[in-house]
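Issue 218. Parser rejects a valid record. Input:
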Amino acid sequence: MNPQEHVNDQRDSEVNTYHSIAPFSHIGPYTAADLPIDEYGRIYHLQIKPEQIAPDILIVGDPGRAEVIGSTFLRDLEVEHEHRGLVTITGTSEITGKQATMISPVKATVTTSGMGTPSLEIVVSELVALNEIDFETRTRKSDFPRLHVLRVGTTGGLQEATPLGTPIITSYAIGIDNTGLFYEAPYPDEICRRLERELDHVVKRSMSKTSRFYGKIHPYVSRSEPTLVNALLEASASLGVPTRLGLTVSCSGFFAPEGRDIARVKPSVPELDEIFSEYDPRVGDQCVENMEMESSFLIHFLGGLGYWAGAICPTIANRCTNTFSLDYQEAIKNATKVALVALANIRSRYRDK
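Output the parser choked on:
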């Protein structure tokens, strides 16, 4: 069975699927303390106005990467702005290459999340507010477009057989950060429920019972929008970019939270990278392919809102072989092309959304 067929089969059996915008629990008006807007009508951290973002969005961690994507892949730029290290660029993408040509150009935004889910929570929440909130009345609009959001970033590989530079397309994200725990998104399917239950035991078994934090680290699992996953697989095939479909672990930091032991304070969960690389998720023939620091919250939060989110991240380190590549810019460019073609194809098929 090829990866795309597996995603389709998965979708047929899932429950609680997100295809519509989630019900409103609160429509406002929102106070200045809850929703800071400056004197120019811009949201506080991104310093962007609602009309300056597109519904098709790439999120990257590195502000320099956002600038490169903007200058390389977007034309007719409408917005180029930086505030607090957060770069936001909006323009029109038009990708061609090998068999792939965009059905039509698509207006897209690339923005910076910074490193880790706490920073990403701020950026993604502001993107949602820019899409949903009327800044004049500070109330939620009755109608707004569905956001399609893809993370393009770097990641560490957990499988020895996955070559450095291979873009990993995330099917499910395992969050061992705690940012997602503050948002009550329902389980998108029974696989998420099962994985959470199993991984809770896996992590607990890997800790010393004398640890101060024994039993206090609880993974949460989210599912990438299957339509986006299929679009990424199709785009990678049309562009001739080899990819891997698999599960992604999102950690709360880079060193001990990803199993690195270089400090004089010991990790509470030793060899966390090995624990996940050896875990069998029983999701078709997929493995836990990679570790990074953002996808879990992105997919959990946006999925809970009824938006479509996913991730494609090239491996620049392999934790099994203890290798690291400093020359990964071409892999990032390939992943960016795949993401932009996928977003354009999805938008052309769902023009009414």
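Fixed in the parser; the record now loads. Residues 258 and 273 are 6 Å apart (CA to CA).
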